[in-house]
């Protein structure tokens, strides 16, 4: 049984159908990739899977439990964390404080007491250990605003890891990163892959095909192809689509996509 399953999901916004009979399965311990053109419904898919939007039809199962329609917090408590396509950090806080704010023991007590908790050695140590995991040891007291773009991506992942998830969703983690930062991020994700189940939406085919065990291609809210990277490389649709050309330009720094959700 897959750790996480989406079965026949439908989602529309007004008269626009964004997910159409979409089914996906993510195996425990694997890295599952999702690719597809802009506007295909990838982020919406994450939003439905993580409880931000309820699907109009279909079922979502996590560890065998039907979680369809559960609110994001409850799904997060079950062990699912996500990073957002647009950065989601407290810019005026230090890297350490961003992670402390995401620790379950801090969230459980409410944000009003977090300043006291900051002085709490165990929360600080816990957060510092999470920062070290993403390669940000030594940056604990740097302001989030002052970090490089690649470091901010790593901090976003640290925030998602703070809850100690079993399943981690990353939405376009390389967006806006240059070649060097993308390579560092690939190393980090490869390391995390040894410890937890990961699902990555990604445009950068080189990044995704190097890390993923399986990849699903979403277009017009449907899965149009799925398989291992080797199987998909030969897929006529992948070869024909402009996605193929991205592999060649993957080392070129790209700006963050405009209007990203
Ligand atoms: N909250 C929303 N309300 C209305 N339309 C939305 C909303 N979220 C996404 N959409 C629309 O759904 C389509 C798919 O968007 P999205 O899931 O962000 O695509 P992708 O992540 O694949 O680029 C787009 O046309 C987008 O405008
Ligand atoms: Mg998106």
Q: Can you tell me about this structure?
A:
The chain folds into two domains: 1-41 and 54-68, no CATH class; 71-201, P-loop containing nucleotide triphosphate hydrolases (Rossmann fold), CATH 3.40.50. It has a six-stranded mixed sheet with strand order 6-7-8-3-9-10, sandwiched between helices. It has twelve helices and ten strands. 39% of the residues are buried. The model is unreliable at 247-260 (pLDDT under 50). Helix 7 packs parallel to helix 8 (179-193). It has 261 residues and is an alpha/beta fold. 37% of the residues lie in helices and 23% in strands. The protein has helices spanning 42-49, 72-77, 95-100, 104-109, 114-118, 121-133, 149-161, 179-193, 205-211, 229-233, 236-240, 243-249; strands at 4-13, 16-26, 31-35, 57-62, 65-66, 80-82, 167-171, 197-201, 214-219, 222-227. The structure holds adenosine-5'-diphosphate and magnesium ion (MG). Adenosine-5'-diphosphate is lined by residues 13, 18, 36, 38-44, 261.
Task: Offer a few descriptive terms.
alpha/beta, Rossmann fold, 2 domains, four-stranded antiparallel sheet, 10 strands, globular
Quick gist of this model?
This protein is α/β, with parallel strands linked by helices and 261 residues long. The protein has helices at residues 42-49, 72-77, 95-100, 104-109, 114-118, 121-133, 149-161, 179-193, 205-211, 229-233, 236-240, 243-249, and strands at residues 4-13, 16-26, 31-35, 57-62, 65-66, 80-82, 167-171, 197-201, 214-219, 222-227.
Q: What is the CATH C level class of the largest domain, in words?
A: Alpha Beta
The description of the largest β-sheet is:
6 strands, mixed
Query: What's the number of helices?
Result: 12
CATH superfamily of the largest domain: P-loop containing nucleotide triphosphate hydrolases
Could you tell me the strand content as a percent range?
A: 15-25%
Which sequence of strands runs across the widest sheet? 6-7-8-3-9-10
CATH names the topology of the largest domain as Rossmann fold
**Radius of gyration based on Cα positions:** 18 Å
**Gross geometry:** globular
The molecules bound to the chains, other than polymers, are: adenosine-5'-diphosphate, magnesium ion
**How many strand units?**
10
> Mean pLDDT, as a whole number?
88
Q: Which regions are unreliable across 5 or more consecutive residues at pLDDT < 50?
A: 247-260
Helicity, as a percent range: 25-40%
**What is the first-to-last residue Cα distance?**
31 Å
SSE-based structural type: alpha/beta
């Amino acid at each position: 049984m897959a750790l996480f399953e989406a079965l026949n999901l439908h989602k529309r916004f007004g008269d626009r159908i964004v997910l159409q009979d979409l089914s996906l399965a993510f195996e425990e311990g694997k890295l599952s990739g999702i690719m597809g053109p802009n506007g295909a419904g990838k982020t919406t898919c994450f939003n439905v899977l993580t409880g931000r939007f309820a699907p109009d039809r279909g079922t979502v199962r996590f560890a065998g439990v039907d979680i369809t329609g559960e609110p994001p917090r409850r799904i997060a408590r079950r062990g699912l964390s996500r990073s957002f396509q647009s950065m989601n950090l407290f810019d005026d806080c230090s890297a350490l404080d961003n992670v402390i704010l995401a620790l379950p023991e801090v969230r459980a007590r409410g944000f009003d007491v977090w300043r006291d908790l900051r002085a709490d050695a165990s929360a600080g140590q816990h957060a510092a250990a999470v920062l070290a995991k993403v390669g940000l040891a030594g940056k604990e007291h740097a302001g989030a605003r002052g970090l490089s773009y690649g470091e901010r991506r790593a901090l976003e992942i640290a925030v998602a890891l703070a809850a100690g998830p079993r399943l981690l969703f990353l939405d376009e983690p390389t967006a806006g990163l240059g070649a060097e930062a993308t390579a560092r991020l690939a190393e980090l994700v490869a390391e995390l892959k040894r410890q937890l189940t990961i699902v990555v939406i990604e445009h950068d085919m080189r990044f995704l095909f190097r890390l993923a065990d399986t990849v699903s291609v979403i277009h017009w809210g449907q899965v149009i192809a799925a398989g291992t990277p080797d199987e998909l490389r030969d897929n006529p649709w992948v070869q024909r689509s402009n996605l193929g050309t991205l592999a060649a330009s993957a080392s070129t720094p790209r700006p963050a996509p405009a209007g990203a959700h």
